[in-house]
């Protein structure tokens, strides 16, 4: 009778130790999974949840609903200004509701979009150039330039300066600026 109780206690202890070891392995696996998630992956998950975020950049703050994430940029839909494209390298801080962070951390497997993943900042700037959309470019020092992108190279854009919210007309162009991508915080697409 004593041996039965002894072996029963040993069996329970063995089961508890196995469960503790399994929990430790699960915790370590989860830590490793979380350690491998890049900021872009987190942003992609937030975009699939249509999360409202507040972004601090070297050029100032902007907020809106996260809509799309590219190779080195992401887009916000701002109720006041419309579309805002933010260069990922300009970001210093992202504010988001804790509940969304918790829910997206548990499920960080957002659908990858092959096309969006390959669309670089330069690609998007060239698309804005082709569409001749007026933009406001915010630089990392907070300075803003309004105009239309005339050219977009590998690492810079050429902006024809004109009044905000107007279409580009040669008679209204007041100058041109070459803007390196690495000093661009964000680009707001203006409505005409």
String of helices and strands: HHEEEEEHHHEEEEE
Under the CATH scheme, which class of the largest domain?
Answer: Mainly Beta
Annotation field: number of helices: 5
Poorly predicted sequence stretches spanning 5 or more consecutive residues: none
Give the distance, in angstroms, between the N- and C-terminal Cα atoms: 90 Å
Structural classification: alpha+beta
Known CATH architecture of the largest domain: Roll
- Count of β-strands: 10
Task: Provide the helix percentage.
Answer: 25-40%
Rounded average pLDDT: 88
Estimate what percentage of residues fall within beta strands: 25-35%
What would the principal axes of the Cα set say about the shape?
A: rod-shaped
* Number of discrete domains: 2
What summary fits the major beta sheet?
10 strands, antiparallel
Strand order of the largest sheet: 5-1-2-3-4-10-6-7-8-9
Query: What is the rounded Rg?
Result: 25 Å
CATH structural fold name of the largest domain: SH3 type barrels
Structure, described:
The chain is α+β, with helices and mostly antiparallel strands and 192 residues long. It is built from five helices and ten strands; from the N terminus they run H-H-E-E-E-E-E-H-H-H-E-E-E-E-E. The longest helix has 34 residues, at 2-35. It has helices at 2-35, 39-48, 98-106, 114-118, 121-131; strands at 52-57, 60-69, 73-78, 82-87, 91-96, 134-139, 144-152, 156-161, 175-180, 184-189. It starts with a helix and ends with a strand. Strand 6 and strand 7 (144-152) form a beta hairpin. It has a ten-stranded antiparallel β-sheet with strand order 5-1-2-3-4-10-6-7-8-9. It has two domains: 1-36; 39-189, SH3 type barrels (Roll), CATH 2.30.30.100. The mean pLDDT is 88. This is Fis family transcriptional regulator.
């Amino acid at each position: 009778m004593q041996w039965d109780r002894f072996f029963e206690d040993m069996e329970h202890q063995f089961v508890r130790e196995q469960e503790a070891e399994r929990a430790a392995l699960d915790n370590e696996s989860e830590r490793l999974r979380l350690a491998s998630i890049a900021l872009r992956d987190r942003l992609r998950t937030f975009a699939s949840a249509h999360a409202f975020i507040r972004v601090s950049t070297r050029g100032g703050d902007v907020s809106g609903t996260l809509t799309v994430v590219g190779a080195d940029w992401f887009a916000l839909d701002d109720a006041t200004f419309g579309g805002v494209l933010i260069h990922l390298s300009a970001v210093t801080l992202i504010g988001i509701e804790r509940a969304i962070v918790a829910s997206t951390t548990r499920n960080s497997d957002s659908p990858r979009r092959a096309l969006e993943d390959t669309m670089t900042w330069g690609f998007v700037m060239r698309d804005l150039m082709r569409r001749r959309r007026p933009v406001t470019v915010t630089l990392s020092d907070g300075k803003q330039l309004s105009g239309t992108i005339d050219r977009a190279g590998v690492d810079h854009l050429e902006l024809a300066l004109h009044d905000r919210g107007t279409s580009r007309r040669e008679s209204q162009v007041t100058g041109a600026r070459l803007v390196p991508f690495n000093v661009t915080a964000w680009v707001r697409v203006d409505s005409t």
